[in-house]
Structure formats: C-alpha cells, structure tokens
C-alpha cells in the first residue's frame, strides 16, 4: 500500500504524553487501504522518551540534537514519504477520521496547499474543557492570517511538495512559538488554504506553557513578523501594508500581556499598534484588546462567571 500521509510528531521530554499522540496517529484509517506513516522526532529529550517511542511497532523514531520544534518538524519532513504531511504536537492527539477528512479536502476542486480544522481544548486527563472559537477562513486567507493566527498547529496538514517548495520551518530559536504562523503566512501568500469542518484535534492545556512567559512570546512574535516579511512572496503581497502586519502582531502581543496580568505592557503594545498602522482604530480586534486592558482580568472573569457556560463551551482566557 502507498503512504499518503506522513504524521510528524516532534517531542521533547513528554514521555508520559507522546504515547497517546502516537496511538491517535496510528489509529487513523484512510480510504482504499492507504497507510499513515508515523514519524517521531525526539529533540534530545532527557526523560525516557527514547524507551517509550520505539516500543510502538511501525513508528520511525529519529533523535536529533536539541534545535527546537521547527527543526524537529523539518527533520521529520525530510524523512517523510507521504504526499501530505500532518503535524501533531506530542502533547496533543487526533480523533478518529481526522486525516481521512483532510485528504478529502485536499482533493477538492480548489486544490488547497494547506488544510486546517477546529481544535478542542482538553485537560491533562484528556477531558474536553472547551471548544476553540476562532475565525474560519479559506481560499485567499493572507490578510486574515496577517491579522490573527487562527489555525491550530496540530490540526494542520500540508502538501509535501508545497512544504518543500517554500523551505519548511525557519530554524531560529527566537521564533519558537510562532514558527507555525510564519510558515502559514508563506503558504497563504502562494496558494489557497482549505478549511475542514471537523473538531478532531484535541489540544492539551497546560498550567505552564510558552504563552505564560510574555517576554519569551514578545521575542517570538516579533521574530515571526521579521522572518515573514523577509520572504519575497510575502513582501510582495504585503507591499505598502507592512505596517498593518506589524500592527496586528502588536495587538497579539498586547493580548498576551493582558493574559499574563501585565496591563501596562498591554497598553504600550496597543499604542505601538496604532503608531504602526492607524487603521487599527477601525479594527474590532484592537478595541477588544483595549476593552480587556481597560477592564482588567478580574472584571473579565466576573463577567464570564455570570454567563455560567458549560464545561464544553468554556474557552481559555
């Protein structure tokens, strides 16, 4: 049987979680008996990942020196045989039918180079705690993506030839955390993007994660914009509107600062956003960030508490 999809799982010190990711990839069933190739790239873990992964039959295990997740995904892609590459973080997992639906979308008349779908937040025990309510766009999504990152990393699959044509992930340590958005910008500048109406990607919510380090994420987000705009195709699409791309990322940084209880820092980034592109004053996302900064986290939590959403409907702050 031919390999149609290569599932690439980068991992680092997640021996207790990677097994579920692997099982979810191996459990995917494709039409006509086609196979899913599962590749796990270990970014020099110091736990017992090297013992856990090889215990799964049929999994290709690659260990590399520590170079972060972008480099690990590139390593997996370089060894992959699939027509399509599907990326799965090692703390996330897929539900049955995810990849089959992706392939069907790839084969639609508009021939997208990348497809994505909805994500579902789950807790440490894999219990649902909230659907992700992000915008949905397809076709030419370049400007929508410049405004806001809306494609959950572990929901994305790409054509392998397109991935290689635009060079894969940038391997810059400062970019860790936004390497996916930067690559999707390069895809969106070149090819149509497809959306799959499914919620089959489970994204694990951790108490400690990259977003909880605002200084780290500021560097990553700024690096993402810098690298994206250095790509010649992106630069042509953004011509004369580079300030808008930067301004939108400044709003994202402001939202991250707010989420980490740094309201003063949030206001600084909102001011920088308007300076970079005054059209932000007409953008509802900017005003949503400003309203949060004005009200504060305590007021926002009280407002949400009065709505009393169900556990399934609740989303992260």
Tell me what you see in this structure.
Mean pLDDT is 91; it is low at 303-317. Strands 1, 2, 3, 4, 5, 6, 7, 8 and 9 form a nine-stranded mixed beta sheet that branches. The chain contains 13 helices and nine strands. The chain is an alpha/beta fold and 317 residues long. It is 43% helix and 18% strand. α11 runs antiparallel to α12 (284-295). β2, α2 (49-52) and β3 (59-63) form a beta-alpha-beta unit.
Shape: globular
Structural class: alpha/beta
Instruction: State mean pLDDT (0 to 100 scale).
Output: 91
Please report the total strand number as a whole number.
9
Number of helical segments with 4 or more residues: 13
Distance between the termini: 45 Å
- The value of Rg in angstroms is 19 Å
Helix percent band: 40-55%
Describe the largest sheet. 9 strands, mixed
Low-pLDDT runs: 303-317
Q: Which sequence of SSEs, written as H and E, runs from N to C?
A: EHEHEHEEHEEHEHHEHHHHHH
Into which percentage range does the β-strand content fall?
15-25%
Topology:
Elements: E1 3-11, H1 18-26, E2 35-42, H2 49-52, E3 59-63, H3 68-79, E4 84-87, E5 93-94, H4 98-106, E6 114-122, E7 128-131, H5 142-147, E8 157-159, H6 160-165, H7 179-190, E9 193-204, H8 214-230, H9 232-237, H10 242-259, H11 263-276, H12 284-295, H13 297-307
Parallel strand pairs: 1-2, 1-4, 2-3, 6-9
Antiparallel strand pairs: 4-8, 5-9, 6-7, 6-8
């Amino acid at each position: 049987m031919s390999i149609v999809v290569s599932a690439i799982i980068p991992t680092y010190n997640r021996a207790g979680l990677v097994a579920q990711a692997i099982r979810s990839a191996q459990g995917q069933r494709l039409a006509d008996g086609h196979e899913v190739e599962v590749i796990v790239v270990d970014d020099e873990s110091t736990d017992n990942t090297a013992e856990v992964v090889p215990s799964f039959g049929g999994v290709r295990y690659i260990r590399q020196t520590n170079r972060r997740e972008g480099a690990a995904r590139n390593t997996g892609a370089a060894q992959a045989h699939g027509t399509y590459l599907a990326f799965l973080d090692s703390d996330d997992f897929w539900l049955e039918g995810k990849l089959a639906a992706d392939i069907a979308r790839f084969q639609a008349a508009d021939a997208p180079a990348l497809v994505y779908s909805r994500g579902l937040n789950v807790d440490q025990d894999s219990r649902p705690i909230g659907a992700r309510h992000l915008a949905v766009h397809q076709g030419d999504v370049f400007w929508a993506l410049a405004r806001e990152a809306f494609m959950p990393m572990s929901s994305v699959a790409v054509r392998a030839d397109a991935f290689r044509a635009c060079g894969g992930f940038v391997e810059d340590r400062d970019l860790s955390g936004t390497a996916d958005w930067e690559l999707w910008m390069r895809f969106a500048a070149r090819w149509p993007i497809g959306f799959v109406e499914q919620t089959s990607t489970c994204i694990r919510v951790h108490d400690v994660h990259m977003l909880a380090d605002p200084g780290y994420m500021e560097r990553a987000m700024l690096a993402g914009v810098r690298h994206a705009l250095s790509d010649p195709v992106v630069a042509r699409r953004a011509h004369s509107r580079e300030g808008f791309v930067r301004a939108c990322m400044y709003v994202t940084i402001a939202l991250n600062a707010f989420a980490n209880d740094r309201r003063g820092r949030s206001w600084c980034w909102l001011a920088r956003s308007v300076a970079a592109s005054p059209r932000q004053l007409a953008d509802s996302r900017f005003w949503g960030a400003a309203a949060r900064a004005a009200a504060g986290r305590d007021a926002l939590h009280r407002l949400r508490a009065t709505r009393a959403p169900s556990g399934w409907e609740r989303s992260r702050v």
